[in-house]
Give the backbone structure.
Amino acid sequence: MITISRKYELIVKTNLSAYAIANAKELVPSAKILGSTMGAVNKMLSLSQELKLLMPEIIGLAAVSPDWDRMIARYWNSLSEPIPYVGKTLETGFKYDLNDVTKKEYINAINTQIKEEDKKIKTDEDLKTYIYLKLSEVEDAYKAAILEANSLSERDKETALKAAYNAKYAKIWNIEAEHYKVGTPIEPFQYLLWKYCLVCSHVANEFSFAEKSMNIEFYLSSEDNKKQLERIKIQTKNKAMEKYLSIITSKKNVADILFAIGLGGKIFDLAKDNEGADLDLQLHVLLQSTMDKDPAKFISLASDKNIALKGLIEKYVTYNIFKRIQGTNIITDYTNPSKIIGNDLDAAVTFCSNPENVAVVSEYETRFKDLNSKFS
């Protein structure tokens, strides 16, 4: 038999009032109750066979009892687990024993479905590998999806991240639904509580999603999550650097991005005080600083197919060809504010890309070129 520990921390999401923050030394936050939600309860009750194996000791009732279904439903609908403010450790690991008679039927059924003889379950280690290989594949797919999402526009990025998150945990739920067939939880209650958290609308399965909804009251964290987050951060930084090195080969590309992110005023001042190579160096420094602050956002900007046009529009704003009305995102003609270019930058891109506006856009281009700026 082998035992594989796998621990998660269920942590209360910090949401202190101004009063509590001011009196943090005197106030000790009380535990928060993790209660039942209809969706999570229904998901747990769908694990009929697993619950019959793992819950008799928890509720003190045999699975063959005529009251079993009623008591199990009552249990999950009455869930009320206090979670200390400092968090609660959940042991979700398993013991794997090929000689466990309760697993024989499941293992034989699994082996029947495996065609390659060398991949059949024959050892305790194989039992663990059967599950963890699947979980590893899900994690790899998730990391790839996160990196891909970071290449999208801000508008599309959040949608892609949420889709990747949902896909990951839907797959994990399905994999964990088979876990009991090859192993026995070290701590059945803690394991089932973790599974409940995976589908509970009040729990974020990762810290990065803890602020995505007002309904979130808790989040899960593990050493593996932390390591994965660090790996993604490193991969994102590396990808951002690749984009940076590609961009700095073109002065226009550098200026486009810097203007597009609203640094027109800063660029204008740098252009007044620097010439030639000195100006290029200062712009590269500014671009690198932008990359370092938020590598994921930088990748998204560098991958934006409209970045050149967005940069041009912001140049027009900086050089008083366009005007952004103070307190809004509305962009207008500088000399004729009643002429709306767009309610925001994306709308302005649409205006400037519209074939019907070719003549007026050409006029703006001419006016900008006549300024003879270092960026026209």
